[in-house]
Amino acid sequence: MSLLYTYDPVIFSRLLTSLTLAFHIIFATIGVGVPLYIGLAEWIGIRKKDFHYILLARRWARGYVITVAVGVVTGTAIGLQLSLLWPSFMQVAGHSIALPLFMETFAFFFEAIFLGIYIYTWDRFKNAKVHLLLLIPVVIGSGASALFITIVNAFMNYPVGFTYENGLITDVNPIHAMLSPAMPSKVAHVLDSAYLTCGLVLAAIAAFALLKGQHNTYHRKALKFTMVCSFVFMIATAIIGDLSGKYLALYQPEKLAATEWHFETSTHAPLILGGVLQEDHTVKYALEIPYGLSILAFSNPAAEVVGLDQFPEEHWAPLWVHYIFDMKMGLVAMLVLITFTFIVELARKRGNIYRRWLLALVVAAAPIAMLTIEHGWIFSEVGRQPWILRGIMKTAEGATRSDHVDLMLVLFFLLYLILGVSAARVLMRMFKRNKVEDELALYKQ
Amino acid sequence: MNYELLGITVLWTFLFGYLIVASIDFGAGFFMYYSTISGTRHLIHQMIERYLSPVWEVTNVFLVFFFVGIIGFFPDIGFYLGTALLIPGSIAIVLLAIRGSYYAFTFYGKASSPLYNLLYGASGLFIPAALSTVLTISEGGYITVTDTGQVLFLAKKLFTSSYSWSVVLLALVSVLYISAMFLSYYAHKASDAGAYRVVRNYALIWSLPTLLSSLLVFMAIYFHNREHFNNMLELWWMFALSLVCFTVAVYCVYTSKHLGWSFVFVMAQFGFAFYGYGAAHLPYILYPYVTIYNNFTNPNMALALVIAFILGLALLLPSLYLLLRLFLFNTDYVKGRHGYEPR
Fold it and tell me: Which residues form the signal peptide (chain A) (predicted)?
């Protein structure tokens, strides 16, 4: 066994970073998306004088704080790990893309201050709207955090805003560096998918309660409200997802080609769905959609799509990203199906959104949405390989050369395991102890 | 003032902010644990919880600001320290993570347990001890660079160095002193006589050790890095002012008068010492590898960061003021007349 084990800090740095990000992204997504729903619910509650919505906002906020805590500490972890595991990369990043990293801290600070104020000032103001106003900085701050961090990721995919000569970065324009062509579609995709996922997570909570037989108006209102929002964000996601594909075709054709197993540059390129890649780069058992890739890339069935033949093989991303991407799209298809079925049932005259199978599907949509985000990030990060900073620095060059990264991997795995289990237990206990019925009764007095 | 100096001043200020707010937080955690075993928990628990709850998240941010900022202004420091500090850095992250999340779990989720109390109290001492070693390392002598450019951390040398341990001692004692001084002010404001008696005692007990351990660090620097020591002597007036502030602050608590001012003097005491120490350390950040001049970022990035910093402050200072006004300077809240639980 020990003969097979060779320590490579690059592999372990990548594994540890993936582990931290995979865990952090769950809480980051909730952190970005849920404040919007809390705010909307409180706003509707104040406008309609409907205490059901106010209670929704309160209960969501209460659970939200727990997830924020895990988000904060894992965010601190990844912030420090960037320097611990990728010191050479951070040296280059410090010179070129430090500005949005710095701004993210401000956005986060802003959010943290107002979240602290918001959760401790229910009922403290005579005018209920003042309390609602305190949430706006939280929504903006968490959205801005996502914006700035995604800007850094966009820069890693398509670095701009400097001159690169003889291995040195000069003439840095920090603002221009933030405006990578990868930025608009990436930022829109991250924000929108966070709002969609959080809608589905909150809908799943309501659907779960309804499934367990708690048929009160509170859960019914929650279910309808969150599912209608999710539907809207679902449509937005479809449009933005399409733009992301078109961005790739134009700016990172090698990433698109590796994803779609498009080896030869050609016009009228078909889209390969599924399949198994053979040694000689032929594909078996795949579903081919004629002209599909050309349409996806340029909205034109005759368009020429650049293939992997235009790039040296050592610059290809691992070809298994195709599987990850197709799995992601499969998960997306399920989400589309669930949200559309729900909306149809809601809109149909004789529809019934409280059918058990439909409620069960809504419950399933929450983990599916989280898995979609995980697959999306794995695809995006693996698809950029072998680069950490595309065209400038390879991932292997950016990593630390320290010993014991493998030990740290074990340490952090245990940490995230403990944090995840404790957070779930605390959340469940919290809502078991504070029953909706009891809290509603308090309001009615 | 040039960008280099401006940059390091900004960062040093964040670190100073962290030193104050984190010390209050860490010390409070320890006192809470200590009060559980000494039987005074019922006296101080509520008061501490009421202070900590709305501000705990803010504490962490000061630290994040510092290390994100230092990578922006001085990209090379991340390279040296990042490579060298993989293990101590990771352990610090784990401690911070456990402390931060379990704080939220207990206070918001109401999930208390004796083991948790121990973890919370102990991490309040381990974290400052771990973080203070970064300052020790910056003094030089604990990192070498091999011929192949590999940065190595001489852990054994750090653990057997008397200088390193004197800094750890100062960090621990200061945490308890700062925290107790603040809690005295807070308890007094809350007109909570029972709690005030307890924390005032803590404050007075830890005041003299604070003084003695800082003298010990002075001595240790003299033996460890003579250049730095001589620079500090040139700034003797800052350390003298620090001593004056210390005397005033302790006197206020001793006579139970002007406790708000007393804490201002505590901040001034540490401010003078911290900036004096920092100024004497210049131009080195990591002796002798990284200086603020040779390892500064490009001027465009520096300008952008400074502008972002000013705009950010314009946003943050009013928000922080609001936070303090609603919780710290709001007598009704401090006295517990508003519910302090998230409902």
Answer: none
* Alpha carbon distances (Å) from A109 to A30, A114, A390, A429, B311: 17, 9, 31, 29, 13
Long-range CB contacts for residues A330-334, cutoff 8 Å, separation at least 24: A331/A368, A331/A369, A331/A371, A331/A372, A331/A375, A332/A237, A332/A241, A332/A372, A334/A365, A334/A368
Report residue B162 as tokens.
Answer: 């008397």
ipTM, 2 dp = 0.83
Spell out which residues of chain A touch residue B61, defining contact as CB-CB under 8 Å: 105, 108-109, 112
A8: closest CA of chain B, how far (Å): 15
Q: Which of B288, B312, B342, B239 is CA-nearest to residue B137? A: B288
Judge contact between A399 and A7, C-beta under 8 A: no
Closest chain A C-alpha to B238 CA, distance in angstroms: 31
Interface A-B, measured as beta-carbon pairs within 8 A, has a size of 230
Span A274-326, pLDDT tens digits: 888 888 888 888 888 888 888 888 888 888 888 888 889 899 989 899 999 99
* A365-379, A423-437, B47-61: range with highest mean pLDDT: A365-379
Q: DSSP character for A266?
A: B
User: pLDDT, tens digit, for every residue of B181-197?
Assistant: 998 888 888 777 888 88
Using CA atoms, how far residue A27 sits from A31, A124, A370, A416, B109, in Å, is 6, 29, 10, 12, 17
CB interface of B with A, residues 323-342, below 8 Å = 323, 326-327, 338-340, 342
- In B, which residues are within 8 Å of A85 by CB distance? 82, 86
Which residue type is seen at B305? Answer: L
Domain spans in chain A, listed from the N-terminal domain onward? 21-182+398-439
Determine the distance in angstroms separating the CA of A419 from the nearest CA of chain B, rounded to an integer.
8
User: CA A59 to CA A445: how far, in whole Å?
Assistant: 19
Question: What local confidence, expressed as pLDDT, does residue B343 receive?
Answer: 44
Are the C-beta atoms of residues A23 and A420 closer than 8 Å to each other?
Answer: yes
How many residues in total does chain B contain? Answer: 343
Say which CATH topology domain B3-297 has: Formate dehydrogenase/DMSO reductase fold (1.20.1630)
Give this prediction's pTM: 0.89
